[in-house]
Amino acid sequence: MKYILVTGGVISGIGKGIIASSIGTILKSCGLRVTAIKIDPYINIDAGTFSPYEHGEVFVLNDGGEVDLDLGNYERFLDISLYKDNNITTGKIYQHVINKERHGDYLGKTVQVVPHITDAVQEWVMNQAKVPVDDDKKEPQICVIEASSLLCSLFQLGGTIGDIEGMPFVEAFRQFQFKAKRENFCNIHVSLVPQPNATGEQKTKPTQNSVRALRGLGLSPDLIVCRSAKPIEMAVKEKISMFCHVEPEQVIFIHDVSSTYRVPILLEEQGIIKYFKQRLNLPIDDQPSDLLMKWKKMADRYDRLLKVCSIALVGKYTKLSDCYASVFKALEHSALAINHKLDLMYIDSIDLEHSTEVENPVKYHQAWQKLCKADGILVPGGFGIRGTEGKLQAISWARTKQKPFLGVCLGMQLAVVEFARNCLNWKDANSTEFDPDTKKPVVIDMPEHNPGDMGGTMRLGKRRTVFKTPNSVLRKLYGDEMFVEERHRHRYEVNPELICSFEEKGLKFVGHDMEGNRMEIIELENHPYFVGVQFHPEFSSRPMKPSPPYLGLLLAATGTLSAYLQRGCKLSP
Protein backbone atom coordinates (compact mmCIF):
# COMPACT_ATOMS: atom_id res chain seq x y z
CA MET A 1 0.00 0.00 0.00
CA LYS A 2 1.22 3.46 -0.93
CA TYR A 3 0.06 6.44 1.13
CA ILE A 4 -0.14 10.04 -0.12
CA LEU A 5 -0.80 12.59 2.63
CA VAL A 6 -2.17 15.96 1.51
CA THR A 7 -1.78 18.73 4.08
CA GLY A 8 -2.67 22.41 3.83
CA GLY A 9 -1.11 25.62 5.01
CA VAL A 10 -1.66 29.40 5.26
CA ILE A 11 -5.48 29.29 4.98
CA SER A 12 -8.23 26.73 4.65
CA GLY A 13 -10.45 26.49 1.60
CA ILE A 14 -7.69 26.69 -1.03
CA GLY A 15 -8.66 23.48 -2.80
CA LYS A 16 -6.96 20.61 -0.96
CA GLY A 17 -9.98 18.41 -1.65
CA ILE A 18 -9.93 19.06 -5.40
CA ILE A 19 -6.15 18.60 -5.53
CA ALA A 20 -6.34 15.33 -3.55
CA SER A 21 -9.13 14.12 -5.85
CA SER A 22 -7.17 15.15 -8.94
CA ILE A 23 -4.07 13.28 -7.77
CA GLY A 24 -6.21 10.20 -7.25
CA THR A 25 -7.72 10.62 -10.73
CA ILE A 26 -4.27 10.80 -12.33
CA LEU A 27 -3.08 7.67 -10.54
CA LYS A 28 -6.30 5.84 -11.44
CA SER A 29 -5.75 6.84 -15.07
CA CYS A 30 -2.43 5.01 -14.84
CA GLY A 31 -4.26 1.77 -14.02
CA LEU A 32 -3.91 1.85 -10.22
CA ARG A 33 -6.73 1.23 -7.73
CA VAL A 34 -7.16 4.31 -5.54
CA THR A 35 -9.05 5.00 -2.32
CA ALA A 36 -9.30 8.18 -0.23
CA ILE A 37 -9.58 9.16 3.43
CA LYS A 38 -10.54 12.57 4.83
CA ILE A 39 -9.47 13.65 8.32
CA ASP A 40 -11.46 16.36 10.12
CA PRO A 41 -10.19 17.47 13.54
CA TYR A 42 -13.56 18.44 15.04
CA ILE A 43 -14.98 16.51 17.99
CA ASN A 44 -18.30 15.74 16.28
CA ILE A 45 -18.69 12.04 15.50
CA ASP A 46 -19.77 12.92 11.96
CA ALA A 47 -21.06 15.84 9.91
CA GLY A 48 -24.73 14.89 10.30
CA THR A 49 -25.71 17.51 12.87
CA PHE A 50 -23.86 20.45 11.29
CA SER A 51 -25.57 23.48 9.85
CA PRO A 52 -24.54 23.70 6.16
CA TYR A 53 -23.05 27.11 6.97
CA GLU A 54 -20.46 25.38 9.20
CA HIS A 55 -18.69 23.13 6.70
CA GLY A 56 -20.91 23.11 3.62
CA GLU A 57 -23.30 20.35 2.67
CA VAL A 58 -23.52 17.02 4.45
CA PHE A 59 -22.62 14.34 1.91
CA VAL A 60 -24.35 10.96 2.31
CA LEU A 61 -22.67 7.65 1.42
CA ASN A 62 -24.17 4.30 0.41
CA ASP A 63 -23.79 2.93 3.93
CA GLY A 64 -25.61 5.92 5.43
CA GLY A 65 -22.51 7.77 6.55
CA GLU A 66 -23.02 11.54 6.89
CA VAL A 67 -19.63 12.95 5.98
CA ASP A 68 -17.65 15.96 4.81
CA LEU A 69 -18.39 17.25 1.31
CA ASP A 70 -14.83 16.46 0.18
CA LEU A 71 -15.76 12.77 0.11
CA GLY A 72 -18.22 13.79 -2.58
CA ASN A 73 -15.30 15.19 -4.57
CA TYR A 74 -13.41 11.92 -4.17
CA GLU A 75 -16.40 9.87 -5.33
CA ARG A 76 -17.10 12.10 -8.33
CA PHE A 77 -13.49 12.35 -9.51
CA LEU A 78 -12.54 8.71 -8.89
CA ASP A 79 -15.95 7.12 -9.59
CA ILE A 80 -15.77 5.06 -6.38
CA SER A 81 -18.10 4.35 -3.44
CA LEU A 82 -16.63 5.24 -0.05
CA TYR A 83 -17.74 4.32 3.46
CA LYS A 84 -18.41 6.26 6.66
CA ASP A 85 -15.04 5.15 8.07
CA ASN A 86 -13.29 6.92 5.18
CA ASN A 87 -14.08 10.12 7.10
CA ILE A 88 -12.05 10.22 10.33
CA THR A 89 -12.93 12.78 13.00
CA THR A 90 -11.44 13.50 16.42
CA GLY A 91 -14.79 12.42 17.88
CA LYS A 92 -14.64 9.00 16.19
CA ILE A 93 -11.06 8.38 17.29
CA TYR A 94 -11.66 9.38 20.93
CA GLN A 95 -14.91 7.39 21.05
CA HIS A 96 -13.08 4.35 19.69
CA VAL A 97 -10.26 4.65 22.24
CA ILE A 98 -12.60 5.32 25.18
CA ASN A 99 -14.75 2.30 24.26
CA LYS A 100 -11.61 0.13 24.21
CA GLU A 101 -10.60 1.51 27.60
CA ARG A 102 -14.04 0.73 29.06
CA HIS A 103 -13.78 -2.76 27.62
CA GLY A 104 -10.44 -3.25 29.38
CA ASP A 105 -8.35 -3.58 26.23
CA TYR A 106 -5.51 -1.47 27.66
CA LEU A 107 -4.98 -3.79 30.67
CA GLY A 108 -4.98 -1.08 33.31
CA LYS A 109 -2.53 1.25 31.55
CA THR A 110 -2.87 5.03 31.59
CA VAL A 111 -4.58 5.95 28.30
CA GLN A 112 -2.87 8.96 26.70
CA VAL A 113 -2.88 10.97 23.48
CA VAL A 114 0.54 9.51 22.72
CA PRO A 115 0.64 6.59 22.07
CA HIS A 116 -3.00 5.49 22.28
CA ILE A 117 -4.76 8.18 20.24
CA THR A 118 -1.95 8.41 17.68
CA ASP A 119 -1.82 4.61 17.36
CA ALA A 120 -5.59 4.50 16.85
CA VAL A 121 -5.30 7.01 13.99
CA GLN A 122 -2.60 4.95 12.28
CA GLU A 123 -4.50 1.67 12.71
CA TRP A 124 -7.69 3.25 11.37
CA VAL A 125 -5.90 4.54 8.28
CA MET A 126 -4.16 1.22 7.57
CA ASN A 127 -7.35 -0.81 8.00
CA GLN A 128 -9.59 1.51 5.97
CA ALA A 129 -7.04 1.84 3.17
CA LYS A 130 -7.50 -1.87 2.42
CA VAL A 131 -11.30 -1.69 1.99
CA PRO A 132 -12.33 -2.07 -1.70
CA VAL A 133 -14.11 0.96 -3.14
CA ASP A 134 -14.36 -0.01 -6.83
CA ASP A 135 -17.00 -2.23 -8.43
CA ASP A 136 -14.45 -5.03 -8.88
CA LYS A 137 -14.06 -5.26 -5.07
CA LYS A 138 -10.26 -5.49 -5.27
CA GLU A 139 -8.02 -4.05 -2.56
CA PRO A 140 -6.76 -0.51 -3.37
CA GLN A 141 -3.09 0.09 -4.14
CA ILE A 142 -2.98 3.83 -3.33
CA CYS A 143 -4.56 5.68 -0.43
CA VAL A 144 -4.84 9.47 -0.70
CA ILE A 145 -5.30 11.04 2.74
CA GLU A 146 -6.46 14.63 3.08
CA ALA A 147 -5.81 16.23 6.45
CA SER A 148 -8.29 19.08 6.84
CA SER A 149 -6.70 22.37 7.83
CA LEU A 150 -4.61 20.73 10.55
CA LEU A 151 -1.79 23.19 10.08
CA CYS A 152 -3.43 26.41 8.90
CA SER A 153 -3.82 27.91 12.36
CA LEU A 154 -0.21 27.24 13.33
CA PHE A 155 0.98 30.12 11.20
CA GLN A 156 -1.01 32.79 13.02
CA LEU A 157 0.57 34.55 15.98
CA GLY A 158 -0.61 32.90 19.16
CA GLY A 159 -2.35 30.09 17.32
CA THR A 160 -6.04 29.18 17.53
CA ILE A 161 -8.09 26.28 18.79
CA GLY A 162 -7.55 24.52 15.45
CA ASP A 163 -3.93 23.63 16.16
CA ILE A 164 -4.90 21.97 19.46
CA GLU A 165 -7.47 19.79 17.70
CA GLY A 166 -5.11 18.81 14.89
CA MET A 167 -1.92 18.05 16.79
CA PRO A 168 -2.65 14.36 17.55
CA PHE A 169 -3.13 13.73 13.81
CA VAL A 170 0.08 15.56 12.91
CA GLU A 171 1.99 13.49 15.45
CA ALA A 172 0.30 10.30 14.22
CA PHE A 173 1.54 10.90 10.67
CA ARG A 174 5.00 11.92 11.86
CA GLN A 175 5.23 8.42 13.33
CA PHE A 176 3.39 6.78 10.45
CA GLN A 177 5.91 7.89 7.80
CA PHE A 178 8.51 5.66 9.44
CA LYS A 179 6.11 2.76 9.95
CA ALA A 180 5.07 2.84 6.28
CA LYS A 181 8.69 3.37 5.05
CA ARG A 182 9.85 6.16 2.77
CA GLU A 183 9.11 4.32 -0.49
CA ASN A 184 5.46 3.94 0.57
CA PHE A 185 4.73 7.40 1.99
CA CYS A 186 4.61 10.77 0.26
CA ASN A 187 3.59 14.15 1.68
CA ILE A 188 2.06 16.84 -0.54
CA HIS A 189 1.70 20.27 1.00
CA VAL A 190 -0.82 22.72 -0.49
CA SER A 191 -0.05 26.37 0.13
CA LEU A 192 -1.18 29.79 -1.05
CA VAL A 193 0.85 32.29 -3.06
CA PRO A 194 -1.06 35.56 -2.59
CA GLN A 195 -0.79 38.51 -4.96
CA PRO A 196 -1.70 41.79 -3.22
CA ASN A 197 -3.41 44.30 -5.49
CA ALA A 198 -1.22 47.11 -4.15
CA THR A 199 2.00 45.65 -5.58
CA GLY A 200 0.85 42.96 -8.01
CA GLU A 201 3.77 40.83 -6.82
CA GLN A 202 3.34 37.15 -6.00
CA LYS A 203 4.47 36.56 -2.41
CA THR A 204 6.31 33.41 -1.36
CA LYS A 205 6.81 34.17 2.34
CA PRO A 206 3.53 32.51 3.50
CA THR A 207 4.55 29.29 1.74
CA GLN A 208 8.06 29.46 3.23
CA ASN A 209 6.63 29.88 6.74
CA SER A 210 4.10 27.12 6.12
CA VAL A 211 6.74 24.59 5.04
CA ARG A 212 9.05 25.62 7.90
CA ALA A 213 6.27 25.01 10.43
CA LEU A 214 5.45 21.65 8.84
CA ARG A 215 9.09 20.57 9.07
CA GLY A 216 9.15 21.69 12.69
CA LEU A 217 6.40 19.16 13.35
CA GLY A 218 8.41 16.36 11.77
CA LEU A 219 6.86 16.19 8.28
CA SER A 220 8.82 17.20 5.18
CA PRO A 221 6.88 17.87 1.97
CA ASP A 222 7.83 15.87 -1.10
CA LEU A 223 5.72 18.12 -3.32
CA ILE A 224 4.64 21.69 -2.71
CA VAL A 225 1.45 22.60 -4.58
CA CYS A 226 1.09 26.37 -4.81
CA ARG A 227 -2.38 27.82 -5.31
CA SER A 228 -2.72 31.26 -6.87
CA ALA A 229 -5.20 33.45 -8.69
CA LYS A 230 -3.00 33.77 -11.79
CA PRO A 231 -0.27 31.56 -13.30
CA ILE A 232 2.89 31.72 -11.19
CA GLU A 233 6.10 33.04 -12.72
CA MET A 234 9.19 30.84 -13.02
CA ALA A 235 11.19 33.14 -10.75
CA VAL A 236 8.64 32.53 -7.98
CA LYS A 237 8.95 28.76 -8.49
CA GLU A 238 12.74 28.96 -8.20
CA LYS A 239 12.49 31.07 -5.06
CA ILE A 240 10.12 28.60 -3.38
CA SER A 241 12.43 25.75 -4.42
CA MET A 242 15.47 27.46 -2.92
CA PHE A 243 13.95 28.57 0.40
CA CYS A 244 11.86 25.42 0.96
CA HIS A 245 14.74 23.02 0.19
CA VAL A 246 13.11 21.08 -2.64
CA GLU A 247 13.94 20.61 -6.31
CA PRO A 248 12.15 22.92 -8.79
CA GLU A 249 10.23 19.96 -10.23
CA GLN A 250 8.83 19.36 -6.74
CA VAL A 251 7.04 22.73 -6.86
CA ILE A 252 3.69 22.47 -8.64
CA PHE A 253 1.51 25.44 -9.60
CA ILE A 254 -2.28 25.36 -9.72
CA HIS A 255 -3.85 28.69 -10.62
CA ASP A 256 -7.56 29.46 -10.80
CA VAL A 257 -9.02 27.72 -13.86
CA SER A 258 -12.31 27.76 -15.73
CA SER A 259 -13.44 24.45 -14.21
CA THR A 260 -12.19 21.84 -11.75
CA TYR A 261 -11.94 19.39 -14.68
CA ARG A 262 -8.73 21.28 -15.63
CA VAL A 263 -6.90 20.52 -12.37
CA PRO A 264 -5.84 16.92 -13.18
CA ILE A 265 -4.64 18.16 -16.58
CA LEU A 266 -2.50 20.90 -14.97
CA LEU A 267 -0.95 18.39 -12.56
CA GLU A 268 -0.18 15.92 -15.34
CA GLU A 269 1.40 18.62 -17.53
CA GLN A 270 3.88 19.40 -14.73
CA GLY A 271 5.25 15.86 -14.62
CA ILE A 272 3.51 14.53 -11.54
CA ILE A 273 3.13 11.01 -13.01
CA LYS A 274 6.87 10.68 -13.59
CA TYR A 275 7.57 11.99 -10.07
CA PHE A 276 5.21 9.51 -8.39
CA LYS A 277 6.60 6.65 -10.46
CA GLN A 278 10.13 7.36 -9.19
CA ARG A 279 9.28 8.48 -5.65
CA LEU A 280 6.88 5.63 -4.80
CA ASN A 281 8.34 3.03 -7.16
CA LEU A 282 5.00 2.58 -8.94
CA PRO A 283 4.59 -0.02 -11.71
CA ILE A 284 3.16 2.45 -14.22
CA ASP A 285 4.00 4.10 -17.53
CA ASP A 286 5.07 7.73 -17.72
CA GLN A 287 1.95 8.57 -19.74
CA PRO A 288 -1.66 8.43 -18.52
CA SER A 289 -4.28 6.18 -20.10
CA ASP A 290 -7.43 7.06 -22.02
CA LEU A 291 -9.17 8.05 -18.79
CA LEU A 292 -7.19 11.28 -18.44
CA MET A 293 -7.66 12.00 -22.13
CA LYS A 294 -11.41 11.82 -21.52
CA TRP A 295 -11.00 14.38 -18.74
CA LYS A 296 -9.07 16.65 -21.12
CA LYS A 297 -11.76 16.37 -23.79
CA MET A 298 -14.41 17.10 -21.17
CA ALA A 299 -12.51 20.17 -19.93
CA ASP A 300 -12.04 21.42 -23.51
CA ARG A 301 -15.73 20.89 -24.26
CA TYR A 302 -16.71 22.76 -21.09
CA ASP A 303 -14.66 25.79 -22.21
CA ARG A 304 -16.27 25.79 -25.67
CA LEU A 305 -19.89 25.78 -24.51
CA LEU A 306 -21.96 28.64 -25.92
CA LYS A 307 -25.60 27.76 -25.16
CA VAL A 308 -26.76 28.62 -21.64
CA CYS A 309 -29.45 27.04 -19.48
CA SER A 310 -30.56 28.93 -16.36
CA ILE A 311 -31.83 27.09 -13.28
CA ALA A 312 -33.25 28.81 -10.20
CA LEU A 313 -32.22 27.04 -6.99
CA VAL A 314 -34.72 28.07 -4.31
CA GLY A 315 -33.30 27.24 -0.88
CA LYS A 316 -32.52 28.62 2.56
CA TYR A 317 -28.71 28.23 2.57
CA THR A 318 -27.93 30.34 -0.48
CA LYS A 319 -25.26 32.58 1.07
CA LEU A 320 -22.63 29.82 0.72
CA SER A 321 -22.43 27.81 -2.50
CA ASP A 322 -20.83 24.84 -0.69
CA CYS A 323 -24.17 24.27 1.06
CA TYR A 324 -25.45 22.83 -2.22
CA ALA A 325 -22.15 21.54 -3.66
CA SER A 326 -23.49 18.19 -4.91
CA VAL A 327 -26.64 19.79 -6.31
CA PHE A 328 -24.51 22.25 -8.27
CA LYS A 329 -22.25 19.45 -9.54
CA ALA A 330 -25.22 17.29 -10.57
CA LEU A 331 -26.69 20.21 -12.52
CA GLU A 332 -23.30 20.96 -14.08
CA HIS A 333 -22.79 17.32 -15.12
CA SER A 334 -26.22 17.29 -16.77
CA ALA A 335 -25.71 20.64 -18.49
CA LEU A 336 -22.36 19.47 -19.87
CA ALA A 337 -23.95 16.24 -21.13
CA ILE A 338 -26.38 18.25 -23.29
CA ASN A 339 -23.71 20.79 -24.34
CA HIS A 340 -25.02 23.72 -22.33
CA LYS A 341 -23.33 26.02 -19.85
CA LEU A 342 -25.11 26.15 -16.51
CA ASP A 343 -26.32 29.47 -15.15
CA LEU A 344 -27.32 28.62 -11.58
CA MET A 345 -29.24 31.40 -9.85
CA TYR A 346 -29.40 31.07 -6.06
CA ILE A 347 -32.63 32.46 -4.60
CA ASP A 348 -33.16 32.72 -0.84
CA SER A 349 -36.68 31.36 -0.41
CA ILE A 350 -37.47 33.96 2.25
CA ASP A 351 -37.06 36.66 -0.40
CA LEU A 352 -40.09 35.24 -2.23
CA GLU A 353 -42.36 35.58 0.80
CA HIS A 354 -44.87 38.33 1.54
CA SER A 355 -42.94 39.42 4.65
CA THR A 356 -39.97 40.38 2.43
CA GLU A 357 -42.30 42.32 0.11
CA VAL A 358 -43.33 44.44 3.10
CA GLU A 359 -39.87 44.84 4.64
CA ASN A 360 -37.69 45.03 1.51
CA PRO A 361 -39.68 45.38 -1.73
CA VAL A 362 -36.54 45.68 -3.89
CA LYS A 363 -35.13 42.35 -2.69
CA TYR A 364 -38.56 40.74 -3.11
CA HIS A 365 -38.97 41.88 -6.72
CA GLN A 366 -35.38 40.97 -7.60
CA ALA A 367 -35.94 37.43 -6.31
CA TRP A 368 -39.15 37.05 -8.29
CA GLN A 369 -37.49 38.46 -11.39
CA LYS A 370 -34.80 35.76 -11.14
CA LEU A 371 -37.43 33.06 -10.68
CA CYS A 372 -39.52 34.24 -13.62
CA LYS A 373 -36.66 34.32 -16.11
CA ALA A 374 -35.24 30.88 -15.12
CA ASP A 375 -35.59 28.02 -17.59
CA GLY A 376 -36.17 25.55 -14.76
CA ILE A 377 -36.73 25.52 -10.99
CA LEU A 378 -35.11 23.31 -8.35
CA VAL A 379 -36.10 23.08 -4.68
CA PRO A 380 -33.45 21.03 -2.83
CA GLY A 381 -33.53 19.30 0.56
CA GLY A 382 -33.45 21.08 3.88
CA PHE A 383 -34.81 21.17 7.41
CA GLY A 384 -36.91 23.58 9.46
CA ILE A 385 -39.83 25.89 8.77
CA ARG A 386 -37.84 29.01 7.83
CA GLY A 387 -38.31 29.83 4.16
CA THR A 388 -40.86 27.10 3.44
CA GLU A 389 -43.59 29.52 2.34
CA GLY A 390 -41.22 30.97 -0.25
CA LYS A 391 -40.45 27.47 -1.54
CA LEU A 392 -44.19 26.77 -1.79
CA GLN A 393 -44.61 29.96 -3.82
CA ALA A 394 -41.84 28.86 -6.22
CA ILE A 395 -43.39 25.39 -6.58
CA SER A 396 -46.80 26.90 -7.28
CA TRP A 397 -45.24 29.12 -9.97
CA ALA A 398 -43.54 26.13 -11.61
CA ARG A 399 -46.76 24.09 -11.58
CA THR A 400 -49.10 26.77 -12.89
CA LYS A 401 -46.71 28.32 -15.43
CA GLN A 402 -45.58 24.95 -16.86
CA LYS A 403 -41.98 25.55 -15.79
CA PRO A 404 -39.76 22.44 -15.50
CA PHE A 405 -39.44 21.59 -11.81
CA LEU A 406 -37.45 19.15 -9.68
CA GLY A 407 -38.06 18.78 -5.96
CA VAL A 408 -35.53 16.83 -3.90
CA CYS A 409 -36.38 15.41 -0.44
CA LEU A 410 -38.04 18.38 1.29
CA GLY A 411 -38.64 19.82 -2.18
CA MET A 412 -40.82 16.81 -3.03
CA GLN A 413 -42.66 16.99 0.29
CA LEU A 414 -43.44 20.68 -0.23
CA ALA A 415 -44.66 19.94 -3.77
CA VAL A 416 -47.20 17.57 -2.19
CA VAL A 417 -48.20 20.25 0.36
CA GLU A 418 -48.60 22.88 -2.40
CA PHE A 419 -50.74 20.54 -4.52
CA ALA A 420 -52.93 19.68 -1.52
CA ARG A 421 -53.55 23.33 -0.70
CA ASN A 422 -54.17 24.62 -4.21
CA CYS A 423 -55.55 21.64 -6.17
CA LEU A 424 -57.32 19.61 -3.47
CA ASN A 425 -58.40 22.76 -1.62
CA TRP A 426 -56.98 21.49 1.66
CA LYS A 427 -55.98 24.94 2.83
CA ASP A 428 -54.56 23.75 6.15
CA ALA A 429 -52.52 20.91 4.60
CA ASN A 430 -49.00 20.80 6.02
CA SER A 431 -46.12 18.67 7.21
CA THR A 432 -46.03 17.62 10.85
CA GLU A 433 -42.45 18.90 10.83
CA PHE A 434 -43.82 22.43 10.64
CA ASP A 435 -47.27 22.01 12.25
CA PRO A 436 -47.61 18.92 14.47
CA ASP A 437 -51.32 19.62 14.97
CA THR A 438 -52.31 20.15 11.32
CA LYS A 439 -55.72 18.74 10.37
CA LYS A 440 -54.38 17.55 7.01
CA PRO A 441 -50.99 15.94 7.69
CA VAL A 442 -49.94 15.21 4.10
CA VAL A 443 -46.32 14.74 5.27
CA ILE A 444 -45.72 12.84 8.50
CA ASP A 445 -42.77 11.78 10.60
CA MET A 446 -41.41 8.24 10.67
CA PRO A 447 -41.41 7.23 14.38
CA GLU A 448 -38.59 4.70 13.95
CA HIS A 449 -36.37 7.50 12.57
CA ASN A 450 -37.32 10.05 15.24
CA PRO A 451 -36.17 8.49 18.54
CA GLY A 452 -35.08 11.74 20.20
CA ASP A 453 -31.36 11.77 19.40
CA MET A 454 -30.52 13.84 16.31
CA GLY A 455 -27.27 12.24 15.12
CA GLY A 456 -27.40 9.27 12.75
CA THR A 457 -31.09 8.47 13.32
CA MET A 458 -32.63 9.50 9.98
CA ARG A 459 -33.50 7.15 7.13
CA LEU A 460 -30.03 7.13 5.63
CA GLY A 461 -28.04 5.58 2.83
CA LYS A 462 -28.72 3.65 -0.37
CA ARG A 463 -32.22 2.17 -0.61
CA ARG A 464 -34.25 0.65 -3.40
CA THR A 465 -37.11 2.48 -5.12
CA VAL A 466 -39.52 0.40 -7.22
CA PHE A 467 -41.40 1.93 -10.16
CA LYS A 468 -45.17 1.28 -10.12
CA THR A 469 -45.81 2.02 -13.79
CA PRO A 470 -43.90 1.76 -17.08
CA ASN A 471 -45.27 5.16 -18.14
CA SER A 472 -43.11 7.13 -15.73
CA VAL A 473 -40.86 9.81 -17.26
CA LEU A 474 -38.25 9.18 -14.59
CA ARG A 475 -38.31 5.44 -15.24
CA LYS A 476 -37.51 6.13 -18.89
CA LEU A 477 -34.70 8.51 -17.86
CA TYR A 478 -33.24 5.72 -15.71
CA GLY A 479 -33.14 3.45 -18.77
CA ASP A 480 -36.52 1.76 -18.21
CA GLU A 481 -35.27 -0.06 -15.13
CA MET A 482 -37.81 -1.70 -12.82
CA PHE A 483 -36.12 -0.19 -9.78
CA VAL A 484 -33.34 2.22 -8.85
CA GLU A 485 -31.06 2.47 -5.81
CA GLU A 486 -30.35 5.97 -4.54
CA ARG A 487 -29.19 7.58 -1.29
CA HIS A 488 -31.64 8.93 1.27
CA ARG A 489 -31.49 11.38 4.16
CA HIS A 490 -34.87 12.20 5.70
CA ARG A 491 -37.00 11.90 8.82
CA TYR A 492 -40.42 12.66 7.27
CA GLU A 493 -42.45 11.01 4.48
CA VAL A 494 -45.59 11.57 2.43
CA ASN A 495 -48.66 10.26 4.27
CA PRO A 496 -49.51 7.00 2.41
CA GLU A 497 -53.16 7.10 3.56
CA LEU A 498 -53.88 10.19 1.45
CA ILE A 499 -52.25 9.35 -1.89
CA CYS A 500 -55.50 8.31 -3.62
CA SER A 501 -56.81 11.86 -3.37
CA PHE A 502 -53.67 13.20 -5.08
CA GLU A 503 -53.65 10.61 -7.85
CA GLU A 504 -57.29 11.31 -8.72
CA LYS A 505 -56.28 14.90 -9.47
CA GLY A 506 -53.22 13.99 -11.54
CA LEU A 507 -50.30 13.94 -9.07
CA LYS A 508 -49.00 10.41 -9.51
CA PHE A 509 -46.83 8.52 -7.03
CA VAL A 510 -44.88 6.48 -9.56
CA GLY A 511 -42.19 5.09 -7.24
CA HIS A 512 -42.24 3.61 -3.74
CA ASP A 513 -40.05 1.55 -1.43
CA MET A 514 -39.89 -2.25 -1.64
CA GLU A 515 -42.77 -2.69 0.81
CA GLY A 516 -44.94 -0.21 -1.11
CA ASN A 517 -45.53 1.96 1.96
CA ARG A 518 -43.16 4.90 1.43
CA MET A 519 -43.70 7.23 -1.49
CA GLU A 520 -40.43 7.95 -3.31
CA ILE A 521 -41.25 9.65 -6.65
CA ILE A 522 -44.04 12.00 -7.78
CA GLU A 523 -44.86 13.12 -11.31
CA LEU A 524 -47.56 15.58 -12.40
CA GLU A 525 -49.67 14.77 -15.45
CA ASN A 526 -49.92 17.26 -18.32
CA HIS A 527 -46.77 19.13 -17.36
CA PRO A 528 -43.43 19.36 -19.27
CA TYR A 529 -41.50 18.11 -16.23
CA PHE A 530 -42.82 18.28 -12.67
CA VAL A 531 -40.92 15.65 -10.69
CA GLY A 532 -40.22 15.14 -7.02
CA VAL A 533 -37.93 12.52 -5.45
CA GLN A 534 -37.61 11.61 -1.78
CA PHE A 535 -34.01 10.48 -2.30
CA HIS A 536 -30.92 12.58 -3.12
CA PRO A 537 -29.86 11.65 -6.69
CA GLU A 538 -27.17 14.35 -6.69
CA PHE A 539 -24.93 12.19 -4.47
CA SER A 540 -24.63 9.58 -7.24
CA SER A 541 -23.99 11.97 -10.13
CA ARG A 542 -20.65 11.67 -11.92
CA PRO A 543 -19.03 13.94 -14.55
CA MET A 544 -19.45 11.30 -17.25
CA LYS A 545 -22.63 9.72 -15.81
CA PRO A 546 -25.12 12.50 -14.97
CA SER A 547 -27.99 11.85 -12.57
CA PRO A 548 -31.24 11.05 -14.49
CA PRO A 549 -33.58 13.35 -12.46
CA TYR A 550 -31.21 16.30 -12.94
CA LEU A 551 -30.64 15.42 -16.57
CA GLY A 552 -34.41 15.39 -17.06
CA LEU A 553 -34.70 18.86 -15.54
CA LEU A 554 -32.00 20.27 -17.86
CA LEU A 555 -33.50 18.56 -20.92
CA ALA A 556 -36.95 19.93 -20.10
CA ALA A 557 -35.51 23.38 -19.39
CA THR A 558 -33.89 23.42 -22.84
CA GLY A 559 -36.98 22.02 -24.56
CA THR A 560 -35.28 18.78 -25.64
CA LEU A 561 -36.77 16.21 -23.24
CA SER A 562 -39.35 14.84 -25.70
CA ALA A 563 -36.74 14.37 -28.44
CA TYR A 564 -34.42 12.67 -25.94
CA LEU A 565 -37.11 10.20 -24.90
CA GLN A 566 -38.04 9.53 -28.53
CA ARG A 567 -34.38 8.68 -29.27
CA GLY A 568 -34.50 6.03 -26.56
CA CYS A 569 -32.76 8.21 -23.99
CA LYS A 570 -29.67 8.74 -26.12
CA LEU A 571 -27.90 12.10 -26.15
CA SER A 572 -27.45 13.79 -29.52
CA PRO A 573 -23.80 14.12 -30.70
TrEMBL record:
<keyword id="KW-0315">Glutamine amidotransferase</keyword>
<keyword id="KW-0665">Pyrimidine biosynthesis</keyword>
<dbReference type="InterPro" id="IPR004468">
    <property type="entry name" value="CTP_synthase"/>
</dbReference>
<dbReference type="InterPro" id="IPR017456">
    <property type="entry name" value="CTP_synthase_N"/>
</dbReference>
<dbReference type="Pfam" id="PF06418">
    <property type="entry name" value="CTP_synth_N"/>
</dbReference>
<dbReference type="InterPro" id="IPR033828">
    <property type="entry name" value="GATase1_CTP_Synthase"/>
</dbReference>
<keyword id="KW-0547">Nucleotide-binding</keyword>
<comment type="pathway">
    <text>Pyrimidine metabolism; CTP biosynthesis via de novo pathway; CTP from UDP: step 2/2.</text>
</comment>
<dbReference type="Pfam" id="PF00117">
    <property type="entry name" value="GATase"/>
</dbReference>
<dbReference type="InterPro" id="IPR027417">
    <property type="entry name" value="P-loop_NTPase"/>
</dbReference>
<feature type="domain" description="CTP synthase N-terminal">
    <location>
        <begin position="2"/>
        <end position="282"/>
    </location>
</feature>
<dbReference type="InterPro" id="IPR029062">
    <property type="entry name" value="Class_I_gatase-like"/>
</dbReference>
<dbReference type="GO" id="GO:0019856">
    <property type="term" value="P:pyrimidine nucleobase biosynthetic process"/>
</dbReference>
<dbReference type="GO" id="GO:0005737">
    <property type="term" value="C:cytoplasm"/>
</dbReference>
<protein>
    <recommendedName>
        <fullName>CTP synthase</fullName>
        <ecNumber>6.3.4.2</ecNumber>
    </recommendedName>
</protein>
<feature type="domain" description="Glutamine amidotransferase">
    <location>
        <begin position="320"/>
        <end position="549"/>
    </location>
</feature>
<dbReference type="GO" id="GO:0005524">
    <property type="term" value="F:ATP binding"/>
</dbReference>
<dbReference type="GO" id="GO:0044210">
    <property type="term" value="P:'de novo' CTP biosynthetic process"/>
</dbReference>
<dbReference type="GO" id="GO:0003883">
    <property type="term" value="F:CTP synthase activity"/>
</dbReference>
<keyword id="KW-0436">Ligase</keyword>
<dbReference type="GO" id="GO:0042802">
    <property type="term" value="F:identical protein binding"/>
</dbReference>
<dbReference type="InterPro" id="IPR017926">
    <property type="entry name" value="GATASE"/>
</dbReference>
<keyword id="KW-0067">ATP-binding</keyword>
<comment type="similarity">
    <text>Belongs to the CTP synthase family.</text>
</comment>
<dbReference type="GO" id="GO:0097268">
    <property type="term" value="C:cytoophidium"/>
</dbReference>
<comment type="function">
    <text>Catalyzes the ATP-dependent amination of UTP to CTP with either L-glutamine or ammonia as the source of nitrogen. Constitutes the rate-limiting enzyme in the synthesis of cytosine nucleotides.</text>
</comment>
